[in-house]
Design goal:
By secondary structure, the protein is α/β, with parallel strands linked by helices. The chain folds into two domains: about 1-140; about 155-185, no CATH class. Helix content is about 35%, strand content about 15%. It is built from five helices and five strands. It has helices at about 1-15, 65-85, 105-115, 160-170, 175-185; strands at about 40-45, 50-55, 90-100, 120-130, 130-135. β3 (about 90-100), α3 and β4 (about 120-130) form a beta-alpha-beta unit.
């Protein structure tokens, strides 16, 4: 069940341009912000130039248990972000909470925890009757990789109007030309 989620998220992460360490996990060692060693409930980690995503198992039956595990995982990811940001970059953090023991008591937890953006953005996925649900909501994994080669094309105006527009733009500048065109329209129609 968990391996299925990791496979789904790994495929989506690669398509969005994220990379994973060889073991697929985030390892903090001798970090002043996290002196406790390895995070036991960590499932998967990936990163890009702009973000880090940590997926953790939240095997809780109650909201209070889930919140305790979430806060611990959040602190771990925040320590990693602080480390990555030492070179001056700003890195977004995304904590994905994988809930394998979903029940009605945890529904309110999902709503509240996803509103909490303290330190990092949080997303909840859970195993339901149709398999893993809500993984499509993980914001940075919805991004697609742009094509590696962008082909630049030279603009050649096809009409006299386009040529005149470019000539006016070069003479008047963008602001003046926009104001001139704005005067031609009655925006109160």
């Amino acid at each position: 069940m968990i391996s299925e989620l990791i496979k789904i998220l790994n495929n989506r992460a690669q398509a969005a341009g994220f990379r994973s360490p060889e073991e697929g996990k985030l390892l903090l060692s001798n970090d002043e912000n996290w002196p406790e060693g390895v995070l036991e409930n960590q499932l998967f980690y990936c990163h890009s130039d702009f973000a880090s995503i940590l997926v953790v198992d939240i095997p809780a039956d109650t909201s209070s248990e889930a919140l305790k595990l979430t806060k611990r995982s959040e602190t771990y990811l925040d320590a990693a972000l602080v480390e990555r940001e030492k070179n001056g970059a700003v890195i977004d953090g995304y904590l994905v909470l994988a809930m394998t023991k979903m029940n009605d008591n945890l529904r309110s937890f999902i709503i509240e925890i996803e509103k909490d953006t303290r330190f990092v953005r949080k997303h909840v996925v859970f195993y339901g009757e149709h398999g893993w649900e809500r993984y499509q909501r993980i914001t940075p994994l919805g991004l697609v990789n742009s094509s590696p080669e962008v082909q630049l094309t030279e603009f050649t105006p096809n009409s006299i109007g386009a040529s005149q527009l470019l000539e006016s733009l070069s003479k008047l500048g963008s602001t003046s030309l926009a104001q001139l065109h704005g005067q031609e329209w009655n925006l109160n129609e």
